[in-house]
Design a protein that fits this description.
Elements lengths: L1 H12 L4 E5 L2 E4 L15 E5 L2 E5 L12 H12 L3 E4 L2 E6 L4 H20 L9
Antiparallel strand pairs: 1-2, 2-3, 3-4, 4-6, 5-6
Length: 127
C-alpha cells in the first residue's frame, strides 16, 4: 500500500529523493539540515497497519532541551496541523491525494521547531 503513496510523492520530488529503508519505510531526502546538528532533516514515510505517516523517529527533538511547558505549547501548536508529538517523536497521518501538501507541512513543522529551539518558546514576546 505504501508504494502508491511513494509514487505520488515521487511525482513531486523525484525518484532519487525517496530511499527505501525496509518494508514499509522510506527516508525522504529534503536537502535540508537540522540547525543544531547539520544532519539531514529527519523525514520518513512509514506504513503502520492500514495507515501511512510522516514521522521523524525522535530526531528533531533529540538534542533540544524543552521543559514540560514548552512541550505542552508545542504539542498544542502542532495539533493544529494534524501533527502529533508523543514520546519525543513527531508523526502526521497522510493520504495519497494530499501527500505532497502533508510532506511540506511536516517539513515546515520541523523547521519551526528548530527555530523555536534557538529562541525559548515560553519566553514572552517583547514589543
Amino acid at each position: 500500500m505504501i508504494e502508491e503513496y511513494v509514487e505520488n510523492l515521487v511525482k513531486q520530488l523525484g525518484k532519487e529523493k525517496l530511499v527505501k529503508q525496509g518494508v514499509g519505510r522510506y527516508f525522504v531526502k529534503s536537502d535540508l539540515v537540522l540547525i543544531d546538528s547539520f544532519d539531514q532533516l529527519p523525514v520518513f514515510l512509514t506504513e503502520v497497519g492500514e495507515n501511512v505517516y510522516f514521522v521523524d523517529f525522535g530526531y528533531t527533538l533529540e538534542n533540544i532541551n524543552l521543559n514540560e511547558s514548552d512541550i505542552a505549547i508545542l504539542t498544542k501548536q502542532l495539533s493544529k496541523f494534524n501533527i502529533s508529538l508523543e514520546d519525543g517523536s513527531l508523526s502526521m497521518k497522510t493520504s495519497k491525494d494530499l501527500i505532497y501538501l502533508n510532506y511540506n507541512i511536516f517539513v515546515m513543522a520541523i523547521s519551526y521547531i528548530q527555530m523555536l529551539s534557538l529562541i525559548h518558546i515560553s519566553e514572552p514576546t517583547r514589543h
